[in-house]
Amino acid sequence: MTTVLRRVAPQLLTLVAVIMLVSIYFPSFWQIVYVNERLVGIPIDVIKRGAPVALLAIGMTLVIATRGIDLSVGAVMAICGASAAWSIDQGFGLWAALGIALVAGLICGLWNGLLVAVFDIQPIVATLILMVAGRGIAQLITGGTILTFDNDAFSYLGSGTLLGVPVPAVIWVLTGIGFGLLVRRTALGLLVESIGVNLRASTLTGINSRVLLIAVYMGSGFCAALAGIIATADIRGADANNAGLWLELDAILAVVIGGNSLLGGRFSILASILGAMIIQTINTGILLAGFPSEFNLVIKAVLVIIILVLQSPRVLPQLAYLWRGRRDRSQRPKQSQTSQQNAGTETKT
Amino acid sequence: MLLSTRDLTKTFPGTRALDAVSFDLKAGEVHALLGENGAGKSTLIKCLTGAYRRDSGDILFEGQPIFPQSTLEAQAIGIGTVYQEVNLLPNLTVAENLTLGHQPRRLGMIRSRAMNAQADEMLSGYGIDIDVRRTLDQYSVAVQQIVAIARAVHLSGRVLILDEPTASLDAREVQMLFDVVRDLRARGLGIIFISHFLDQVFEISDRLTILRNGRHIATCPAAEVDRMQLITLMLGHELQQETATRARPVADGKDAIRFSGVGRRGRIAPFDLTVHKGEVIGMAGLLGSGRTESAEVLFGAAPSDSGTVEDSDGPVDLRNPRAAIAAGFAFAPEDRKTDGIIAELSVRENIILALQARRGWSRPIPQAEQIRMADDYIARLDIRTPDAEKPVGLLSGGNQQKVILARWLATNPRFLILDEPTRGIDVGAHAEILRLIEDVVAQGMSILVISSELDELVAVSHRVIVVRDRQHVSQLTGEDVTTDTIVRAIAAPDLTPEATT
């Protein structure tokens, strides 16, 4: 537990800092009220609106841990959302719609996984194919229109509440816990990290890296399907052009803010989810602060740069050095130099 | 003195890598730096080249204290380094590699012709005649090594540090490199030479400095010590004379694994091999002769496209490494860094990895069991690491090799393939690994050892297979297993060296 806490400490601190920043502009941040059997307040809004990116970040973490990347998740959201809306439209009912959407996500993941693991295409190129083609496929499913539907059971997944908590938030929390247990209670996490660090050596050690890679991309497709279902259910319609648009980049950003290296290896799903929440808090905060909307993207970019620079393995040790230096500059100059080196190696992992 | 250190000290968390080391390099000498893995050679070099910052002590260049903060600064001062893995860009031309960063330009554009001429001039006097317009990767490692030296000498010009430059060269290439080194010595450069090959150290060095556990042990002229004294100084205790184990009779062949006609087109011609229980088979041959290719066929890493494999229970499936491991095979590859260790993962995780892979993802080895296994192997193989949670990439080469051996021993294999198990490893770990081979063989494991060090092969093998030109050409058994006969078999049939190149 303490090791997990130490791993996600930078993300927790960043989240607290961002929340404090937003609170300055909007002091009633923490006001949460219970009306009409649902909790209402800014934090509730954050965990609800952050659901798609949080879900995508879960799958993306595993893909990035294998030294890959999945650019197609936004398009897969659109495909799965369109599949679900189509199924509802055809009168198949809730469960069939969910099943079809999830299977569509898994098939998309399988496609990506095959290209990467069997045909040995670089992940960024392999998933770019579906990123571009995916929206076309989604448009074919919706027939080129925004496919709206009226099904209360299905829209509950996007806008309903469970014990006052928005259902999308419940879904990403459960998915996060599910994936967390899956990778850490079994050996999957270790094997994924191993192929991410050294694919060739891992294969020679007897790890079934091909199957594992495909499974990881399918996991990402599964998460994208859940995100697509939520996005579609929320607006009661499938918009092939805009569902999940650019969200793959937010998901990658969440993973990076979560301190996971794009070079693969060690990963933390919890840290990525915290990264997603940081991004959503910034998004929500900017809207609340009442800046003209044209400033939003620029302000977001500035905040993200600050966060990444502070987390950089080059900057963090220097700050730690300055801080320690102030404390015991006179007694142990040598000591702080070694711990500086130490901090450098630690942040890398 | 050209370059000296005074009381150089460097500590890392948990270890004192350098402890008040004083060292001198004269102009016009080759000075060998010797020591076991982890003795502090690399740390000393990295302090000299600015890759590490020292904790205390002085570095003097021609009497003046220097404080290099990066390899670039060290180069500007006059200290150039060439590493075992050539640090050049294989996809650029030789000329581009030589002149990178200071190409002749006109209006910001590179003048190719002038650049090539400059490159030709830089290489003149190195005794190699190559086309500088071709990309570097078209040349052998030895030529690349010399190009790297030419670049380092051109940029620095006073001190040249050679870190394991001969590790991947064959005997002829080593001579080529040594000619260059002698020439540079005559030109007045100070050369620091690091190698695990003691024969080469004696051949090329004027003086030796021995480090042990981060301390300076001795400095003396190379002519005044012999091999035995040197090893004693490096280890700090007497090395036991290696005993011949060959006399042991091989079992009746009941549990033998029989490979017949296995091979892979373009890599190794089909061959037969019978592996008996508790037998050590040596494999000798020049680099590129098909030794590693044979191992990869036997392990399914590059699966055989012909022949059959059988044991007492019937056919053995060697489609891929996974299948081979399931059949009780294990393979410690030649290139530890790219094919062996998972550098970022801990020693513990590296040790349990093969066993975990065999159990499958759904049956994780319990944490307590992992820790017990890791501690057990760390103690048994004397793996020098502060603890089992240290990333294996931070250990020295010999200890990394022991971790890989531990990984395979944990799977309790019946047939263990070791490709160059002692390459780049100091004499201490070397002897320990040979002892380990004897131990596991005594317990009934069969081993295939591929090695360039014939002494080592002769010491451990019951029989030796000689590989030449991608074919298994002969097999030596019993009294025939001597370095002499192996060399003759490698060179045969016509005994002209050209035939084997």
UniProtKB/TrEMBL annotation, chain A:
A Pfam family assignment: BPD_transp_2
Source organism superkingdom: Bacteria
Where do the TM regions start and end?
12-34, 46-64, 71-88, 94-118, 125-149, 169-191, 211-231, 243-263, 270-291, 297-323
Task: Reply yes or no: does the keyword Membrane apply.
Answer: yes
Q: Where in the sequence does UniProt note compositional bias of the Polar residues kind?
A: 333-349
Keyword field: Cell membrane, Membrane, Transmembrane, Transmembrane helix
What protein does this entry describe? Answer: ABC transporter permease
Its localization reads: Cell membrane
Source organism per entry reads Roseinatronobacter alkalisoli
Task: Map out region (Disordered) in residue numbers.
Answer: 330-349
Q: How does it sit in the membrane?
A: Multi-pass membrane protein
Question: Do the record's keywords include Membrane?
Answer: yes
TrEMBL record, chain B:
**A Pfam cross-reference name:** ABC_tran
List UniProt keywords, sorted A-Z.
ATP-binding, Nucleotide-binding, Repeat, Sugar transport, Transport
Report domain ABC transporter positions.
Answer: 3-238, 251-494
- InterPro entries per the UniProt record, alphabetical: AAA+_ATPase, ABC_carbohydrate_import_ATPase, ABC_transporter-like_ATP-bd, ABC_transporter-like_CS, P-loop_NTPase
SMART domains reported for this sequence: AAA
Key word ATP-binding present: yes
PROSITE patterns in the cross-refs? ABC_TRANSPORTER_1, ABC_TRANSPORTER_2
Origin: domain of life: Bacteria
Which SUPFAM superfamilies does the entry mention? P-loop containing nucleoside triphosphate hydrolases
Gene Ontology MF terms: ATP binding
For whether the record's keyword set contains Translocase, the answer is no
Which PANTHER family does this one have?
CARBOHYDRATE TRANSPORT ATP-BINDING PROTEIN MG119-RELATED, GALACTOFURANOSE TRANSPORTER ATP-BINDING PROTEIN YTFR
Q: What is the official name of this protein in its record?
A: Sugar ABC transporter ATP-binding protein
Q: Which organism is it from?
A: Roseinatronobacter alkalisoli
Taxonomic lineage from the root: Bacteria, Pseudomonadati, Pseudomonadota, Alphaproteobacteria, Rhodobacterales
